Amino acid sequence: MVTAKRPILLLRLDEIKITNPRARGKKSFQEIVDSIKSVGLKRPITVTKRDVYESAFTHDLVCGQGRIEAFRLLGQTEIPAFVIEATKTEALVKGLVENCARRYHTAYDLLRDIGRLKENNYSDADIAAKIGLSTEYVRGVARLLSQGEQRLLRAVDSGQIPLSVAVDISTADEPGIQAVLQLAYQKNQLRGHKLVIARRLIENRRRRGKGLGTLLPERTKNPSASALIKAFKADTDRKRILVRKADATRNRLLFVTHALRQLLAEEAFQDLLAAEGLDTLPRNLAARISRVEPA
Length: 295
Known about the structure:
elongated
């Protein structure tokens, strides 16, 4: 168990290993930097002492990645730190609780920590009790994580779709997904703009896959041949769609130009436009109408 006594030491930044790094928004990080710059550090970071030294690291970080990064940005070399005694699992739980309490935590950070707790034989109920979430929520996000559904996870985290709908989508085939959307519409879970977003999300998931590059920090540097072929095909499909849209727009423009040219050849139509005060055209349109288009 974590001991009650927590001595404060002044530790060098290069002695502290960030074992569980997290992504942080620029805005929230800048707020931390501005706060430390104006009023100083309000609360020391929390670390545990390493049993086995690795390079120059003497301590593992439990809580306070943002404060450490802010100190480095401000040119500091040392930072006050609470030193606690805790096992790796206890340190992970403490870091997870702080992550949940943060205003700007990401779904990937949360789920990655839930996955690590499950690897340490914590049940869904135990994890839910520790981080203050429902067992159903933990079970649902753990299932999405195990299936690599980062695209759906981001939508859940941003409130675009309910977790239960995301779980149902992850286990359904193409016809089944449409049934899931229909049911969500009937239950008033997805209406209006949210339904449009959900359909766009499903299309992107179908074309680009379940994952998101920004949520995969451990992605291999050298992609496989199959991954390159898949990316090439996806890019080719997108370009084909753009070409088809461009052709359709060009055909509509040719049709409108031809129709206007025929109408303006009629004296009665010209008299009608003059009577309504509409007998002038934009210069570019007039030039296009007077130009002879190829058949």
